[in-house]
Amino acid sequence: MGLVLFEVAQSAFVGVMNQQRLPRSIARHLMHTQREVMPVKGFHRHLPALVSLILLTVLAGCSTQRNQAPAPEPAVVRSEIVRLLPASVADRQGWAQDIQTAFEAQKIDPSVENLCSVVAVTEQESNFQVDPAVPGMGKIAQDEIDRRASKAHIPNLLVRSALDIRSSTGKTYSERLSAARTEKDLSAIFDDFIGMVPLGWTLFGNFNPVHTAGPMQVSIEFAERQARGYPYPVEGSIRHEVFSRRGGLYFGIAHLLGYPVSYDKPLYRFADFNAGWYASRNAAFQSALARVSGKRLALDGDLISYGFGPALGQTELAVRSLYPRLDMRNTTIRSQLEKGETLAFEETELYQRVFDMADQAAGKPLPRAILPGIVLESPKITRKLTTAWFAQRVEERRVRCMARASGSLR
After folding, report:
1. Which residues touch 164 (CB under 8 Å, ≥6 apart)?
2. Is residue 251 included in any domain, yes or no?
3. What is the pLDDT of residue 15?
4. How far is CA 51 from CA 23, 33, 43, in A?
5. Which of 155 and 3 is assigned the larger pLDDT?
6. Residue 151: pLDDT band by 50, 70, 90 thresholds?
7. What confidence tens digit (pLDDT) does each residue in 239-262 have?
8. Spacing of C-alpha 74 from chain mean position
9. Minimal CB count within 10 Å: which of 61, 179, 249, 384?
10. Is residue 315 part of a domain?
């Protein structure tokens, strides 16, 4: 009888452990209990432990099943999004439809926290304008042309002559630049200029200086890399899609929520949205590394230098300076730092040993995520702003959004 009960309990235990993700505390207890319960003489002495094993296994399985609730119906998600949007947003149903479609297509959990994160970023970046106007856009464009002309040693007179050519719209390029109000306007002008005017190719090649677009101001380069699985027919190009509401939201949501993190606060995702995936986690690693190496490092989240030439980044040099303590080859250091754009970096020997040393030096566990210390630079920015400022502003908006939630998707 004891052997039968033991085998039943062990089978249930193995099934749950293999198929379910148990909290570590429960898993450790189950493993310990399993080792203690053995089918030997005096089995009755182990009966309480066996009962504990069975109960914990069943409870763990039930708990996990409760967590696997079916996804809410699309109509329910859209209704909640409409409620979460700021009162000033027009075409609320249209915004809700595009956000819900992006979540469904990318299989992202439409929790209130996730929805409010998207609402907060969109409000911060564009105030729910599909193609937001940028003050002084014409001058920004002209300055970019002049800068590139100077770099290419092209006389200013030649540039002005090229801009006075009539474009495909019947207006000169100079006239169109002066009238430009949005990034979409500017992108269209440069595409036309590059394709129609020989000097345009000399100045820009196939490079369009508009890097971000749409209501979430997502990187066009990021969108082009993430185009697989895009749920809509592409009209013209992915670049053009990013300027639309549906495309801008789809790729913006992918950039904000489409990667796994171990953060305990949405704040760090907002910083990553501005500075790049895992920038907050990597900045914390740089802070720990600075503590143990004695090197002064920029906490920018960039673990390696991708520039031309053999020069190494300051973070990589700081790690190499720890060779006597790490005993890791330079090639190993480099390969593990290159995982800094993935969650897997946290499982590397380098990450864990640097934090072990830093925690010991500090006498306490150091944070595994901090806001990167990056000053934002762009022709569109007219005052000193930082990634931390951006993340905190978005967090304030997320909190206000959460207050509007009905509770149906919590």
Report:
1. 172, 173, 174
2. no
3. 43
4. 20, 10, 12
5. 155
6. confident
7. 999 999 999 999 999 999 999 999
8. 24
9. 384
10. yes
Structural domain tally of the chain?
3
Domain assignment present for 333: yes
CB-CB contact of 270 with 117 (8 Å): yes
pLDDT at residue 215 in the model: 96
Nearest to 211 by CA among 134, 127, 278, 156: 134
Residue 337 CA neighbour count, 13 Å, CB half: 27
Q: Tell me: do 209 and 272 sit in the same domain.
A: no
Report the half-sphere exposure of 250 (CA within 13 A, side-chain side): 28
CA distance 97 to 248: 13
Of the candidates 67, 99, 115, which is a domain's last residue? 67
* Phi, then psi, of 213 in degrees rounded to 5: -160, 170
- Residues 276 and 189 both lie in one domain: no
Q: In terms of domains, do 201 and 281 share one?
A: no
Tokens of 141: 């464009």
Binned at pLDDT 50, 70 and 90, residue 3 comes out as very low
Q: Which amino acid is at 84?
A: L
What residue numbers bound the domain in which 326 lies?
A: 266-362
